[in-house]
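pasting for the record
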Amino acid sequence: MKRLVRALACGVMAGELGLVICLLAGVRVPWGVEAAVLFMVAVEAGLLVVAYRRKGRGALDDLVPVTARRLLGHELRVFGSFGLWVARRRHGVPAGAEGFPYARGQAAMMYAFAFVCVVETFGMWALLRDWPVAHRIVLFLDVYTVVMVLGLHAASVTRPHVLAADALRVRRGAHVDLWIPLERIAAVRRENRFTHTAADGELNLEVASQTSLTLELDASVRHFGFLGRPAEVRLVRLHAEEPDRLARALEERLTRVRTVPSPVPDLPG
């Protein structure tokens, strides 16, 4: 049953994506195609309801592929970042914590990429005027690309690194979010690096190919990649707009954590 639902999920996602693109582009879709997609949606929904009644919420996690859940979550976080960006708010910076932005270094590149995408959109719009179906589909995809590029930058702006009382939360846009307990940080080094290798146990959160701070851990932390693949991390390189301030604040927090007196043991009776 699990394989059947996963196969239907993949088919439904592909069918729905194609149907939505066609509808938004104004392409007339035969009623038989719409009926087939709706039938697959109904069958999958029924199977999910049955599985949920048998096993509870865990059944949904087993039946819906992790990749699909993570891709959908990433899309929702990206689009949600637009609202935070417009409202000039930050995500995940509670009272008592301090946020450290990092997106300024990539702003020029992201705006330039968005401008190129806009130029390409107008170019394809002019070239495909004589083919209405292709014209509408490509126009939708081009506009979606521009929105995604701006959304990725908005996610970076609204999701800074966060230094809390007991942990450092390092992030990069909407797709990297890692909590590092302060007691696991063995050393903090202020260094600028412009080349990075993908070595085991290392996590490089470069911005515009640059990192400005290196964290060495005395115990590994588990990091889940974009598609959910786990990895044990012992070295983290990240970038911040004010790396010296982040390094000083982190050293102060680490000093407090390391100098907290241990509890006095009870005297023997």
